[in-house]
Amino acid sequence: MAFILRRLVLSIPILLLVSIMVFSLIHLIPGDPVTVILGLEATPEAEQALRRELGLDRPLVIQYLAWLGNVLQGDLGRSLVDRSPVVDEIFRRLPVTIELALGSFFVALLIAVPTGLLSATRRGSVVDYGSTMLALGGMSLPSFWLAMMFIIVFAVKLQWLPASGYVPFSEDPRANLTAMLMPMVATGIRESAVLMRMLRSSMLEVLHSDYVRTAHGKGLTEWVVITRHALRNALVPVVTSSGLLLAGLLGGLAITETIFTIPGFGRLIVEAIFERDFVMVQGAILVSALLVVLVNLVVDILLALIDPRIKAGKGA
Question: Is residue 87, in this structure, part of any structural domain at all?
Answer without folding.
Answer: no
